[in-house]
Amino acid sequence: MEWGKRIYAAPGPQGRCAAGLRVGGSIIVLALSVCAWGAADPNQKGNYVSRQEYEALKKELNDVKAQLSTPGQALPAQDQTCQEMARTRPVAESLGLTDTRLLITGSAAAGYFDPEGQSSTFTAEFNPMLLWQLNERLFFEGELELGLEGPEENGEGSETEVELDLAHLTYLLHDYALAGAGKFSVPFTAYHNHLDPSWINKLPGDPLVYADGGIAPDTGVGAFVTGAVPYRNALFSYAVFLTNGPALITDDPESAGSLNFDNFNDLNNNKALGFRVGFLPFPELEVGYSFEFSRPNPPGFETVHSTLHGVDLNYVAHLAAIKGQLTARGAWIWSDLSDVTYDPTGDLGFGPLFFDNDRNGGYAEVAYRPIDVSERILRNFELVLRYDRLDIPSDAPGGGTREQWTPGIDYWITARTLLKVAYTFDSSGPDADMFALQFATGF
Amino acid sequence: MILGDSHQRVSAWVVVVCAILSIVIASCSTTDRSASQTGQSSPTAVRPARFRAAADPADPPGDANAPAAGAKKGKELFATLGCAGCHVVNGQGGTAGPDLSNEAAKGRSRSWLATKIRNPKADNPQTIMPANSNLSDQQVGNLVDYLLSLTATGGQTGTTAARSTVGRPTASTVSSSIAVGGTRWSQRCGQCHNLRPPSEYDDGRWAVAMHHMRVRVPLTGEEQKDILAFLQASN
User: What CATH number does the domain containing B140 carry?
Assistant: First the structure.
């Protein structure tokens, strides 16, 4: 009703003015539209093309179709690119550049550890790995270990820890052997070479024998030869290595008599020599035996011989009877060091100290993942249980037997990303028990 | 308010439990969503096998008049495509994927199997099985013929296929380097870690990764070449 009144009511002076403005505006808009139409692309004469233009386009399209459908006939630009590639390829090949390939991979993890007797803490680590295939036979592998080092008791000293974990060059000799040199993962038992990346290790921490204060070497500087040889339906693998060897700790009252495997210098011009032989009677099972001999005493100290032995087992099977994958892993390591007296004169304040320096330890781990059940959520879970043991002579610093039981649950988010939750029961006492949560990924 | 040690520990546990529950719930919701899709009539939905036993209009073509011939072609394809690298059939093959010796007895329909072959992620986004979208309908049909011809007791219906011994593959048990490589991939690589989906790397990256694994594991030169052939054919 209001609308009708406005239309049909007689306009006053203000109304006449407004109507005039509306009419004027309309004329201006119309004029601008006409001008814009006139100023448009002179070649664009409406939305239509002439018959001549249509035929030209059609001919051009047919020519392109014919050119593409003719085998071996490339477009001019493509042909030029091919010619350029043909010209430069021999040059690149003569320089050995065509087979060079780089790959950056590695792992990363973030964790939360809550020991009963100490403060809880978050952790983070990052292990980028550079793989460089120089040609079909030459290969370089380097890995950094970036972590966070906790503070001293006074709260000072927190820092980012950067270590050169691996840096070695290998050369393929033939189908059954390759040789390498540099800083490499010592093939003493299978753990460090195969199982310790955070996305492969099914629990947040390393087994006692491989952790700090353990009795197995992890990395070393030297040279190695390794390979595998098939025999009927079985496979034998082998590795021989020569490294600068570990260092015997002689002057620390808290760890005298133990070996420092993070030593990368030869202390006495005697190298550590070792090997591992593996046997796979069938693909699901591998057993191995490892040995290392060294003279780890520092200059000026009594000669000490170190002999390490290790056996390891790895069994992974997909069993229909239990609707899933069963993993059983383990290792047992025993070491024998010459029995000598530490701080014989008592100058260091803890001697003379003498003990039978035989140390043993190992771990056994079983895991089950129900990958055949129909519920997808269940297929992503994996149950893990690990037993750890480390025997140190009771007379030695830090001596005694230590045992750990660690049940855990993993949730696999992808094939190489998982969340681990575990609780460790430690025989050292309730204060040594620890809750651990870790998120790990391989990339 | 200053919290004591016990309160701090409880708080930390609450945070941890909440984090785990969040992840589980997120996974459940994904699962539930997928599960709910299975009951819908979406063309990409995959319904449970027991509901799909009857013939489906979307069934791939097989050799209806000569199913044995189709199964024979499917068996050849199964070998040349490297399916045995991950799947056990009659006690032979890799263990990365499920045993396929008994698909007929499980009530799998032709369309369910065909979808699984063409687009394995349709009902399981986390699977590492590569898609086979390049196969023709006839080839998929032949593979389905072959899988449905297998019986629970081993061997093919109407054939004398022998149950081989479990062990390392030989030239007589698999027909190509790719197939052998697939088996070795699941066996050797799967011995230490979950298998990285082949599609994650291109040919060049797989060449580098396999060289790296040869240094670490170690592998023979033949194993390295076979596994690489399989990965480069599957990525």
Answer: 1.10.760.10
Q: Rounded to an integer, what is the distance from CA B85 to the centroid of its chain?
A: 9
Prediction pTM value: 0.67
> If you count residue pairs, one on A and one on B, with CB atoms under 8 Å apart, how many are there?
137
Within 8 A of B96 by CB-CB distance, chain A residues are 318
Nearest-angstrom CA–CA distance, A126 and A298: 33
Q: Do the domain assignments include residue B141?
A: yes
Question: Which residues, 6+ apart, have CB-to-CB distance to B147 below 8 Å?
Answer: B74, B100, B103, B104, B108, B113
Residues 6+ apart with CB under 8 A from A389: A208, A360, A361, A362, A363, A401, A402, A403, A404
Q: Which chain B residue's Cα is nearest to A324?
A: B98
Domains of chain A, start order: 106-442 (2.40.160.10)
Residues from chain A contacting residue B215 (CB–CB below 8 Å): 139, 141, 170, 178, 180, 226
- In-domain check, residue B160: no
B170: which chain A residues are within 8 Å (Cβ-Cβ)? 233
In angstroms, the separation between the Cα of residue A229 and the nearest Cα of chain B is 7
Contacts of residue B122, Cβ cutoff 8 Å, sequence gap at least 6: B44, B45, B46, B115, B116
Task: Note the pLDDT tens digit of each residue in B167-206.
Answer: 344 434 444 678 788 888 888 898 999 988 888 898 899 9
Closest chain B residue to the Cα of A142, Cα to Cα:
B212
**pLDDT tens per residue across span A370-408:** 988 888 889 999 999 999 999 999 999 989 999 999 999
Distance in angstroms (rounded) separating the CA atoms of residues A103 and A95: 20
- Any domain includes B221: yes
Q: Inspect the interface and report whether the beta carbons of B216 and A194 lie closer than 8 Å.
A: yes
Residues of A in contact with B95 (CB under 8 A): 284, 317-318, 325
Q: Which of B106, B111, B104, B115 is nearest to B156 (CA)?
A: B104
Q: Which of B16, B208, B220 sits opposite A133 (nearest CB)?
A: B208
| Token representation of residue B146 | 């072959």
Residues A176, B207: C-beta atoms closer than 8 Å: no
Q: Which of B149, B166, B186 is the last residue of a domain?
A: B149
